[in-house]
Amino acid sequence: MFVAGLTGGIGSGKSAVANLLQEQGIVAVDADQVARDVVLPGEPALAQIAQHFGTDILLPDGTLDRTQLRQIVFADPKARLWLEALLHPLIRERIQASLHAATSPYSLLVSPLLLETDQHSLVNHVIVVDVPEETQLQRTVERDQNSPDQVKRIMAAQIDRQSRLARADSIIDNSGNLQSLRTATLQLHQTLLQLAQDLRDS
Ligand code: ADP
């Protein structure tokens, strides 16, 4: 199975590209969604987190207090490493299972952390959605109603634009309007179909 990985900074247009490819019948696995799924109530990882950080890390309804956990790992690198060691293998396994179950000509892994984690080893082809930083900031602030400073902090914690682009097999330029994005995405879709076919023929 040919797997394309789709990444890009916050607000670059990953979801927009993924939606267009899903419209073409491509199965997309969202790494952020999987990361939320592995800590749902009843999941062993949630019990381990509650044991490690104390049950105060749970909200009254038994779900994970993500805001509090984010604050803890932001302030404590050891806690962050512990959490990543617990969650990254679980997330990876679940992503792999979903990609494996996909029945479309190729499948798509959408992940903001494709290049920052070992998730890139799950894909045959890295697609980077790219926009200038000002556009990224403006679109994210509009979408999330966050302050520009908050978005800038998130951007600073992500891999920088040049390093990301250096690792791309394909780049989608999303500096134009949504129609241009659609055209570029449908063109890339044809390339990916061909690459997937080549892999099957090899
Ligand atoms: P990501 O998933 O990478 O965080 P999104 O796909 O959510 O980014 O895009 C960020 C925001 O910008 C969304 O509100 C989206 O609708 C908007 N957007 C994406 N591409 C364009 C574009 N080419 N023109 C205008 N707005 C766009």
* Count of individual domains: 1
Q: Which oligomeric form is depicted?
A: single chain
Order of helices and strands: EHEHHHHEEHHHEH
- Per the CATH scheme, the topology name is Rossmann fold
Radius of gyration: 18 Å
* Largest sheet features: 5 strands, parallel
Kindly estimate the percentage of residues that lie in beta strands according to DSSP.
5-15%
Tell me the distance between the termini. 12 Å
Percentage of residues in helical conformation = 55-70%
Number of E-type strands: 5
Q: What would CATH call the architecture? A: 3-Layer(aba) Sandwich
Structural class: alpha/beta
Mean pLDDT: 96
Residue runs with pLDDT of under 50 for 5 or more positions: none
Named once each, the bound ligands are: adenosine-5'-diphosphate
**CATH C-level category:** Alpha Beta
* Shape category: globular
Would you kindly provide a written description of the structure presented here, covering whatever features stand out?
Helix content is 56%, strand content 11%. The chain contains nine helices and five strands. It has a single domain, classed as Rossmann fold (3-Layer(aba) Sandwich). Strands 2-3-1-4-5 form a five-stranded parallel β-sheet, sandwiched between helices. Helix 1 (14-23) packs across helix 9, helix 4 (66-75) packs across helix 5 (77-101) and helix 6 (133-144) crosses helix 7. The protein has 202 residues and is of the alpha/beta class. The chain binds adenosine-5'-diphosphate. The site of adenosine-5'-diphosphate has 15 residues, from helix 1, helix 6 and helix 9.
